[in-house]
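Reply to dn_fold:

You asked what the input looked like. This is it:
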Amino acid sequence: GKHWCKLFSISDIKNQKTKLIRKDKKEIHVMKSASVIREKGKIIGAVETLTDITELMEKEHQIEEFRRELQSEYLYEGMLGISPTIRRTFDMISNVAASDAPALILGESGTGKELAAHAIHDHSSRKEKPYIQVNCAALNESVLESELFGHVKGAFTGAYQNRKGRFEAANGGDIFLDEIGDLPESIQVKLLRVLEEKVIERVGDNNSIPVDVRVITATNRDLKRLVDEGKFRSDFYYRINVLPITLPPLRERKEDIPVLAETFFKRVQMKSNKQIYGITPQAMEALVQYPWPGNVRELKSAFEYAVVICSENHIGVEHLPPDITKQASYPPPVQGKTKNLNEDKKQVLIHALEQANGNK
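and this is what came back:
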C-alpha cells in the first residue's frame, strides 16, 4: 500500500513526545525513539523504545501551577498572606518605601523581617542602587565597627591596607542593620552621627566621608524596654524609629496558615522524589491550631520535616514535627460494634476506599 510508516523514509525518530492509552483507558505520556535495522543496505526490521514520562510531565505541570501561584495576589515580595492584618502590613511597607526616612522593622523571630527590608528597597527610588545587609549580633564590637565604616592601613594589627566599609558600599542605596537591639553603645553613638550628618569616618582616620544611605533596622527585642532599662540609647532609638513597621506573628493571622502551608508543601515536594499529593484536613487543622512560636520560618521547617518523614500519599498529623503533634487534638475513637483488631482494620480500609472513590 501507499501508507508506509514514516520511520521507513527517515530511518530514525529520536525523543518524540506522544501519548498512549493503556488497557485501563488511562492516558500516559511517553518519550519515543525508533530506528530501522539495515543489513547490507536492506531493511530487515525496526526497533522502538518507549519511556513512560507521565510523572515527569506531572512535575512540569506542578511547577507551572506553582509559578502562576507565585504571581498571584497572595504574594508580596516573597511574603504570602490574605489576612487583613498582613495586607495592612504590605501597604505599610509600600508607604515606608516611598519615603527616605529611617525605617525600623519590629517582629518576633521568623516573621520575615529580612523579606520586609528587601521589599522596602525594591519598592523605593533606590531599587537600582546597592542593598547591603549586616547582622549586628554576628560580629564583635571591633570587627563590626570596621565592617560598617571601613578602616585605613595601620589602624590596628592586621589592617594591611585601606578598606571600604558597608556604608560606603551602600552609597546611593539602602543598608539593612539586622538585630539592631544587640548593637554596642559605642557603635550606636557612631551610627547616630551617620544618621544626623550623613558622614562616616573609617577606623583610624579623622577624615569625614559623605554617604547617601537610607538606614533600615530590625529587631525581635523590645527596644523601648531596653531604653527604659538604660541598655539602649534613647537618642539613637528615636532616630531609627521614624517609620516603624510591626510584622504580626503567625498565630495572629491564622487565616494565612493554609495559604502558607500549601505553598511550602509544594516547594518542598518539588525538591523531593516522593509521590505526596497533599495535606490531610486533620493535619491542616493541627497546623492552624498550633501557636507557632517560630512563626513562618517554623512552618516552612515543619514541611521540610514532614516530607522526609512521610511514606504515604498525603501528609497527616503523624508526619508533622513532635511539637505540633503533641498539641494536636485527635478525634475520639468511633464507638461501634468493632470487637477485634481485624474488624477495626476492615473499617479503616472501607473508610479509605470511600474517601478515594474506590480507587485502590
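Residues 132 and 175 are 5 Å apart (CA to CA).
Hope that clears it up.
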